[in-house]
């Protein structure tokens, strides 16, 4: 993902292939949120009128860079996880390799669950930066926060769609983690 051009990713997404798909799109939206917020921080660091917030800004810069890298990695992991799940689902019912479906289904749910957690952290960082970063870039920060929230919501949809393929105890574990993350997300996120 990190090595593709935007045009290349969009062409791959538009193609009639199982991956990249919604998971990669959600991760990319989260990574865009990080980059947008990083730009706000870059224009805020070193500003005299924000002297009291420099430590917060420096910490946010590190968190956002780390989150952006994680989301790009998770986009690749999501494509790989869904690719494997798709491959296994296409096998004949009697194929012994279909025994790997529960593990593949869990992986296909866990990757977007991880991405959802990262997006939630990005939204949290953006919220903390409100009023403590360059006021001229307030709308940029709001865009970053909104993108992070939407990306997290999209990740939750990818987790939810994969719940149908899970069996206990994985179903209970993943459902519980999804519910816990939904409970921590900003109020603007849809909980459906």
Question: Can you tag this structure with a few keywords?
Answer:
single chain; 192 residues; mainly alpha; Four Helix Bundle (Hemerythrin (Met), subunit A); 6 helices; 70% helix
For this structure, the CATH topology is Four Helix Bundle (Hemerythrin (Met), subunit A)
What order do the SSEs take from the amino end to the carboxyl end, as H and E? HHHHHH
Counted up, domains total 1
- Rg, Cα atoms, Å: 18 Å
> How many strands, which pairing sense, and closed or not: the largest β-sheet?
none
What is the assigned CATH homologous superfamily?
A: Formiminotetrahydrofolate cyclodeaminase monomer, up-and-down helical bundle
Counted by DSSP, the helix tally is 6
Write up this protein.
By secondary structure, the chain is mainly α. The chain has a single domain, classed as Four Helix Bundle (Hemerythrin (Met), subunit A) (Up-down Bundle). The protein has six helices and no strands. The radius of gyration is 18 Å and the shape is elongated. The two termini are 29 Å apart.
Secondary-structure map with pairings?
Layout: H1 6-14, H2 22-42, H3 54-89, H4 101-129, H5 138-162, H6 170-184
Helix pairs in contact: 2-3, 2-4, 2-5, 3-4, 4-5, 4-6
Brief characterization of the structure:
This protein has 192 residues and is mostly helical. It is built from 6 helices and no strands.
């Amino acid at each position: 993902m990190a090595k593709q051009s935007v045009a290349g990713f969009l062409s791959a997404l538009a193609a009639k292939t199982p991956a990249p798909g919604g998971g990669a799109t959600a991760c990319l939206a989260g990574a865009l949120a990080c980059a947008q917020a990083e730009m706000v921080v870059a224009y805020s660091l070193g500003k005299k009128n924000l002297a009291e917030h420099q430590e917060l800004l420096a910490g946010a810069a590190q968190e956002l860079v780390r989150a952006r890298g994680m989301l790009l990695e998770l986009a690749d992991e999501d494509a790989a996880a869904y690719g494997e799940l798709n491959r296994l689902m296409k096998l004949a019912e009697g194929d012994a390799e279909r025994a790997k479906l529960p593990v593949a289904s869990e992986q296909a749910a866990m990757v977007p669950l991880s991405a959802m957690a990262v997006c939630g952290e990005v939204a949290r960082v953006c919220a903390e930066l409100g009023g403590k970063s360059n006021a001229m870039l307030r709308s940029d920060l709001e865009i970053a926060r909104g993108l992070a929230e939407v990306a997290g919501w999209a990740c939750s949809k990818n987790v939810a769609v994969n719940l149908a393929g899970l069996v206990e105890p994985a179903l209970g574990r993943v459902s519980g983690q999804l519910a816990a993350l939904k409970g921590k997300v900003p109020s603007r996120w849809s909980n459906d």
